[in-house]
Every structure is written in C-alpha cells, then in structure tokens.
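ok trying this again, last paste got cut off
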Amino acid sequence: MTNSKNKTQNVTTAQGVSRRSFMTAAAGGALAATAAPVFAQGKPQYRLRLQSFLGPGWDEWSTLVPRFCDRVKAMSDGRVEITPFPPGSLVPTFEMLDAVGRGVIDMGYGAQIYWRGKFPFTQWSWGMPFMFNTVDEYEILWWESGMTELVRENFATAGVQFLGPIYSDEWGSTISRRPIRTLADFQGLKIRSGGMGAELWKQFGASIVMLPGEELYTGLSTGVIDAANWGSPYGNVATKLQEVCKFYTGPSILSSDAEDMFMSKAVYDKMPSDVQEIMVMATRSFALERYAYSTASSARAFRTLAEAGVEVIVLPDADVQTLREKTLELVETTAGDDPNTKKALDMIYKLRALLDQRPAGF
C-alpha cells in the first residue's frame, strides 16, 4: 500500500477514512499549500498518463475524468499533473492493468471484471446480480468490509496500486438487434456480456462474445454480435448503440458495478504520504460523482432511445425471479476454490445478511 517510510502516515484503512482524509478532501488546495507551499509556483513533480476505458461521447470522458485530473492537480498544489487518453490509444483496453504494472502507462480507469483472467475474484468484486441496491451499500462493502484491501493486496503483486472503486449507476440491461421479451429469446443470441450476466444468459442458450466498449458499435452494426450488456441506458446512448439496435430489455441486474482507478505502484510508493492520500480521496470523490451523474444521465437517455425508435421492454416478473434464483445456483457452481474469491464472497454475503436485519418498512 505505501512504502515503509510513509506507512504510519497512510490513514486510509478497511475501517474507513480518518478525519485527516476528509479534511484533505474538503480543504483541497489549502491543505496542499500548507504542506508544500514551494510547489505553488507550478512545476509538477509527477506527470502521469491516464488511459480511460470510456471515451468520446461519454460524460465521464468530457466532464468527470477532466474534473478528476483538475482536482488532483489543485489538491496537490500542482505537484501532480494527469493527462487523460481515450480507450485503446496507448494500449488495448483489456491490457491496461498489465501495462500499468509494467510502467508502460502510469494510470488506468477500467472495470474490475476486465482483470478476472489474472485475478478471478474480480468477477465478484465487480458486482453480483440482485445483491445490493444503493451506493451507500457499495460504500460499506468497499471501504468498511475489506474489499478495497483485498483488491490492493492482489493488485500489488502485479505492480499496481489500486486507488479505489468507481461506481456506475447500473448494469445488465440488454440492447439488441432483435426483441428479447422473455428469457427464451436469449436462445441462439450472440451477446457481448461478462461476469454473472454472461453466465446467466448462457443458461438460456446465448453465446458470449467478449468485445471492448470501443468495438461494440461496429460489432452490432455488422452482426458480429446480436446484443450487448453495456452499462446503463446512458451508457448505451453514449456509445450511440440506439442507432444500430432498436430493442432495449430490462431490468438491469446490477444497481451498480465496480469500475476502478489504479496506478503504477512504483510511482505511488515514491509519492509523499499527503499526495498518496490525495490520489485516494480524489478517486472516492470521482466514484460518487460518477454514480450520481450517470443516474441522471440514464433518466434523460430514455428520451433519446424513444426518439431513435427503440422499443423498451421489461422481462416478466416470473423471469426476473428465475434470474434471482439462477444467480444463487451459479455462484455455487462457478466460484471455484480460489481463496480470494472465497474472501470476496464472504464479504458480500455477510454484508447482505447485515443489511437484511432491517425490518421491512424501515
């Protein structure tokens, strides 16, 4: 997490964030100026290249990623300067984690599920269908229950410093070239999906195709795939998939999935403890902004879908209940014996059990 020199000063823990962390987020540049006023003259100590998996057309790319970069620069009093790059511009999207670990790029903004080939448990840290409902529940999972520490420990073995999760607003509705009105309509469908969503659709006869987000429009327009799970209503509109698909089926099976922000551990370990903390707190701020911003954007997206002639479909209640039951069955058959997967699932189930102690209506 931090080098030995700064270990006692790093105050971000599984139990939460100390008063100093929140003072950092609130005071921003004032804290940085007090810590190192000499850097107010503006020459950055750290020039970092950040590749995002969301690019042009996304509010994250045009608004939130620049806001994150500006916030880090202001909070560090100019010591850290981050330059963002769009998807695939420096390295292929699915290779970002390895590229950061090898020092090819300095930072990555991706999604936990993309790294399951190296770290199988990220299928579950990314999200489990029908498990949590609100962003505060995800905050408890990540910052109070130990999920952040689990990811940090594992990413560190690849030379990567995990800064924190970024929350999307929802995931798992399906945009498609032909209508999906019941689970039976997944039979024979070629669908871009991942995680438990992919496992669910396979149960009903779909075949899974893995494509990065930047290739979805072409894949759908040429018939390489028939359908895609690509985030929220807003996410589909941001990628203009309504131009090539005229059917949109819900509900989403995740209220949020975990995207992630990470950087070179070698670079992070050389940073002063206050700058390390700034990187973490700016990430936490980005996470909540991403969730709120995209929730509003998804509400607006339904008008865009309607104007494009997209039919919005909701699966029957009986089919949704079937998906809930299938999810629990599939966890048992797909989790395997990976010890980190067992840790992640234990955190998830314990938190769900805790939250279920609230009586109905409260």
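PB: full thing came through this time. Confidence is low (pLDDT under 50) at residues 1-41.
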